[in-house]
Write a structure and sequence with these properties.
By secondary structure, the protein is mainly α. It is built from 3 helices and 2 strands.
């Protein structure tokens, strides 16, 4: 996130590549307690990214998004680390299912 202040150039942005790390951390912290709930929730989170990739002209994930994943004019349309961290998270989650 660049800033929470909208007066700062570029305003508030979300880095797509952080999502994969969030999934892995969430899974590691709650593993064993809510296993089925975690996998169910993560499935829908991952599906939303999969859907975004299929709708993208690049068949990829962007570097940045605005609120709720909306288009960010300052973002690159395709970022390797956005896809790579999501694939790493999927692999991690798959190992524990």
């Amino acid at each position: 996130m660049d800033s929470t202040t909208t007066t700062v150039p570029s305003g508030c942005k979300l880095n797509s590549w952080l999502f994969g790390y969030y999934l892995m951390a969430d899974h590691a912290l709650l593993k064993g307690k809510y296993e089925k709930k975690i996998n169910y929730n993560h499935f829908f989170d991952i599906y939303n990214h999969y859907k975004a990739m299929n709708e993208s002209e690049w068949t990829s994930l962007p570097e940045l998004t605005n609120d709720n994943g909306s288009f960010c004019k300052d973002s690159c349309g395709s970022q390797l680390w956005s896809v790579a961290t999501l694939l790493e998270a999927i692999n991690t989650l798959k190992a524990f299912t």
